[in-house]
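Bug #77: duplicate submission created two jobs. Keeping one. Sequence:
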Amino acid sequence: MSKTSGKRHQRPWMPQEHQRAIRLKNEGLTYSEIGKAIARSRISVEQKLRFDRDLTRHSRIQSVQRFEPSEAALKDRDRRSMIEHPNITAAFFGDPLPGYSMLDRAVADGSVWRHVHAQSDDVVL
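Kept job's structure:
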């Protein structure tokens, strides 16, 4: 049994050591082989390189291009912010603003009345 087994040394990683470990991993060496080459344990190398990979993955997610809304969408947002809900209950429960519900839109384009008239022609009394 070696003198160091069971002890945690937690020697800090030097930048040169870290770069060499990355280079060796990119060359296809295993964590054990890298550990032997830089005098570190397999676990230490694996944790360090996996932590780096996770940071890289996270930075790629953050570098995704931001969505910029169109000018028309911004104008619509500003116009909607000027409209008030008819009462506090509608505001609290998130009811559509006046003129923005599906029923309001259908009435505005006349499709509701076409539907109602089509059904009333079929009704026999």
